[in-house]
Amino acid sequence: MKAASPHRVRVIVDPTFGERLAALPVDGATWVIDTPENTPVAHRLWKERPAANHLTGITTFRPGSALSAEEELISQLATIDLHHGRYSADPPYSVLEVFGCSPLDRVRVALQKFGFAVQSTTSEGFIAVRANET
Questions:
Q1: Which of 100, 108, 112, 131 has a CA between 20 and 30 Å from the CA of residue 50?
Q2: pTM score, two decimals?
C-alpha cells in the first residue's frame, strides 16, 4: 500500500515572485505575499483553477509594515498552522517550502515552535519538515 504524500505548504515572501507562481506544482497550498507583482498572478490562477481548495489553492497575505522577508514568514506561521495544522487538515501539513528568505536562526527558532526543522536549503529559500518526519 502506497503511503500518502506529505501535505506540503509553500510560502512565498519574495515580493517579485510573479509569474513563477504559475509554474509551481499544484500538489499543496501556496501562501504568497500580496504585492503588485504577485497578486495579479494569484488572481488569474484563482480563475484558471476553480477546483482548488484550501489544501491546494493560493492564499495571498498582506505584508507587514517594513518587515524583512524573514519577519514576514515568521508573522504568517501561526495563521498557516491554523489553516493547515492538525485541527484543519487530515493529514496536517508536514512540509513547508519557503521562497524568498533564508533559514536564519530566528526563523529556525520560530519553525521549532510549530514542530518544524530546516531539512535543506534551495536556490530560492529552504524546505522545513516536521521534526518527527525527518
A1: 100
A2: 0.91
What nine digits make up the cell of 130? 516536521
Per-residue pLDDT of the chain (134 residues; tens, 9 = 90+): 344 567 899 999 999 999 999 999 988 899 999 999 999 999 999 999 888 777 788 999 999 888 999 999 999 999 999 999 988 888 899 999 999 999 999 999 999 999 999 999 999 999 999 976 44
Phi, psi of 34 (to 5 degrees): -75, 105
Contacts of 18 (CB under 8 A, 6+ apart): 37, 38, 41
107: in domain: yes
Are 31 and 57 in contact, with CB atoms under 8 Å apart? no
Provide the domain limits for residue 69.
17-119
**117: alpha, beta or left? (left if phi > 0; alpha if psi -120 to 50):** beta
d(CA 26, CA 29): 7
